[in-house]
Design goal:
The chain contains two helices and eight strands.
């Protein structure tokens, strides 16, 4: 009799746990219009923070960065920002080379990092277009390699 009760309790607990896992996550990510990124020039050791609006290419040194999606957890959930980026290396007289295409996560930048000999780029946050307009530092500072840092 005791074994039957223990088995029933175990199965009930297992079913309850499965139901909780199958329930849609309350940590759904909310879409935003602008990604806040940071870039590191490994040669000069200079870090720049800049804004990358959705579907607009921004330059950071020889990199052309296009944000395709930017999502952030709701304020009551554990903080997380995730951004889908396409990063191309654009040099004069050389064909554009795709360096990265995928999701980057602010909480775990090493999970999906871009491999580049000179630059590192990582996600800081996702913000609304209104919040981004309040921040005047929308473009990265000029890098030593003479790259143009302008939105296209």
């Amino acid at each position: 009799m005791k074994t039957t009760l223990v088995k029933a309790a175990f199965i009930s607990g297992f079913v309850l746990a499965g139901a909780l896992i199958a329930t849609p996550s309350q940590a759904d990510l909310i879409p935003y219009e602008v990604a806040i990124l940071q870039g590191l020039n490994k040669i000069t050791a200079r870090v720049s923070e800049f804004q990358a609006p959705i579907n607009q290419a921004v330059k950071f040194g020889s990199l052309e960065i296009t944000t395709r999606d930017c999502r952030k957890s709701s304020p009551e959930e554990m903080p997380e920002s995730a951004t889908f980026l396409e990063i191309d290396d654009v040099k004069e007289n050389v064909e554009k080379k795709r360096m990265f295409s995928g999701w980057m996560f602010a909480s775990s930048p090493a999970i999906s990092a871009m491999e580049h000999p000179v630059y590192d780029v990582w996600v800081v946050d996702c913000v609304s277009a209104e919040s981004a307009a309040d921040n005047t530092n929308s473009e990265p500072e000029n890098e030593a390699d003479g790259g143009n840092q302008s939105s296209e």
